[in-house]
Amino acid sequence: MNVNRHGWTRRSFLMGSAATAAGLGIFGATRALASPRPLRAYAADKGILFGSSISGQVLKDSLYADLFTSQCAITVPEGSLKWDTLRPTPYRYDFSGGDWLYGMCKSHEILMRGHTLVWEGALPKWFAATANAENARTMMLDHISTVVRHYAGKVPSWDVVNEAVQIEDGRPDGLKITPWLRMVGPEYIETAFQAAHEADPHATLVYNENWLEPEGAGAERKRNAVLTMLTRMKKNNVPVHGLGIQSHVYAEMNITGGGFKRFLQQVSDLGLSIMITEMDVREKNAPGDIAIRDRLIASQYYKYLSFMLQFPAVKTVITWGLSDRYTWIATHNPRLDAMPVRPLPYDAELRPTPVWDAIRSAFEETRRR
Ligand code: G3I
Question: Rounded distance, CA 134 to CA 137, Å?
Answer without folding.
Answer: 7
